[in-house]
Amino acid sequence: MRVVQKVSSSRAFAKVAPRVIPALDRTVHRLTGGRVLPAASLLPGVVLTATGARSGLPRRTPLACMPEDGGTWVLVGSNFGRPGEPAWTGNLLAHPEASISWRGREIPVRAQLLEGAEREAAWAAVLAFWPPYGTYQARVERRIRLFRLTPREHPGARPANQTVKGPSDRQ
Length: 171
Description:
This protein has 171 residues and is an alpha+beta fold. It has helices spanning 2-8, 11-31, 87-94, 116-129, 132-139; strands at 45-51, 58-64, 66-68, 72-77, 97-102, 105-113, 145-151. Strands 2-1-5-6-7-4-3 form a 7-stranded antiparallel sheet, sandwiched between helices.
């Protein structure tokens, strides 16, 4: 796992990964009916469906996530350590109600941008979960955005309380 973390912290990975990984994840996720997300073999992942901030159209983005106890998820707007904010973070700021595909289930969620002490606690947990995020933060001048996704109440909703403590603890 350390080799994977080292590679994912490299500048070469930051150049190539944003073009290759999401396209591969989207394709395989679609072809398997949401059952398989290749990048989730390294880190837990979701496919976020959020409303475009400018277009108003649904935007599907495969993302690594950190599941939390209690059925919530933290998303990290690292953009692989590149300078600009990832588009999906602007979409969630404009339209916090979204949905995720998590282990083959579509779950309506509400996104909250974490700030202050809540962000600091989540950032410490994120760094313990996947240390390369620290390298990404050191590479950029912006403060990496963190979002907590909480399931929205809806008829027939099942609790989404399956949690993962770290990359090697996936359920």
